[in-house]
Amino acid sequence: MTGVAPTQLRIPYVIARAEEIAPQPLTFVRRPLGGLRLAYADERRGDRVNGVLRVRVLNNRRGAPQWRKLNTLRQWRCMVKLLCQVCGQAATDPAIGRTPWIMTDSAFRELPEDPTGGLTSAPPTCWACIPEALATCPQLRISSTVCTVARAEPAAVLADMFTPGPGHGALHTGEHNVEISLKDEVSIRRALATQLIVQVHDLQPAPLEFPLTDTDTVAS
Predict the structure, then answer these.
(1) Rounded Cα gap, residues 35 and 124, in angstroms
(2) Cβ proximity of 199 and 150 under 8 Å
């Protein structure tokens, strides 16, 4: 849900706000078994998830919406708990036991080894919010496919990359939105995750009775 005009759509749950920026006291520390890894100088519970350091943000939903940015905490929560990226409520349809999801070319990638699944960095969207999202989000007008998925699991992250600097400092390499598998233990040591990527399984077309507009498409 990026690039949405403020006058057209309520502020989606996952959108970052101006007053949610938090200090990032980054450093490199030596691991018990050798080698360096990126860390916070005052690392706390919740900073490291799935083995990767996560960017610190507040979760107060205060300040002007940053329409092209997602709040890392809320995006992560939507992905893990399958919450709607617009309203923040449970997205899974209990009647069918599946989760509705809008897939786009920019946020979904097929996997050769999984013909009915793939990777996505966009959270699900509940049935109630899909019509509003499709009608008002410019990005979804370019490419959008309404599907349902059976399940999703953490698979990778989008991250900024760092390298050790003088005095155990951390220097940004200039690399943004680098996709790193959670299995890539080497790269994860230098990564500051900004978004969680999940692998969705058993991707199917949205139910035919779901009301679509003229500009929407359904997976085939």
Answers:
(1) 37
(2) no
Torsion of CA 105, 106, 112, 114, to 10 degrees: -80
- For residue range 134-189, what is the model confidence (pLDDT) as tens digits? 888 767 766 788 999 999 999 999 999 999 999 889 999 999 999 999 999 999 99
Q: What is the pTM of this model?
A: 0.88
Amino acid identity of 174? G
Cβ(146)–Cβ(108) under 8 Å? no
Spatial contact of 100 and 84, defined as CB atoms under 8 Å apart = no
pLDDT tens digits, residue range 2-55? 444 444 568 999 999 999 999 999 999 998 777 899 999 999 999 999 889 999
128 close to 88: Cβ distance less than 8 angstroms: no
